[in-house]
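Hi P.,

Sorry for the delay on this. The queue was packed all week, but I finally got your sequence through. Input first:
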Amino acid sequence: MSPVEERGPLVDYCSRLGDDRLVLGHRLSEWCGHAPILEEELALANVALDLIGQAQVLLGIAAEVEGRGRSADQLAFFREAIDYRNVVLVEQPNGDFARTIVRQFLFDAFDAALTTALRSSADSRIAPWAAKAEAESAYHLRHSRGWVIRLGDGTEESHGRMEAAIADLWRFTPELFAADDGERRLVERGIAADTSRLREPWLREVAATFAAAGLRVPEDGSVAAAPRRGPHSEHLGHLLAEMQIVARSFPGAEW
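Then the structure:
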């Protein structure tokens, strides 16, 4: 793959990584003022800030490689929902606290393995980002894993809510491990992580944590036919409308 041929898949890949984090970070920020305890409100806010900070770096790389003069902020605030490349899992509504924790844990278990794999990326911008993000991802996983066990092995009500959340959100997990031709070409060049190899360690982490919580691992859903290019849920449009309104109301403003 020539540098020119590599540019499109690399822009898309960094946008995928950035969009996952931007959307999930915004979802977590919605808990500010609403979390069940103050300590957890601060914890969720810190995780959200980590994710949004990671997104800023990744979207900045995407903008640089794209070479069209756009910035990370422009990619974040001036794209339509159809142009976002995040997995559908991260755009799902918070629901109750159990649902938020299950969504977070399923992504965290994947992200911890992903950032570790990307530390050895052949891209000189992705590798240092991953080296820093790996420590944050490990903290995120430790936090969500602890809550999965606490709620799953808690009261009858908390256990039931966790089971309901798992039953609903599990169907979105296959997309985490799906790749298209562009991403596979980046894998061959040592730039992207081979997500097909991450599924086994992800499933081990999920199974061990669920077992400690007294929860069951559901059967696999169907793998997404068009990873990260299929239709988003209706929830993403509502999320972006809220997230982008200030930037779109005052385009070009400096803060």
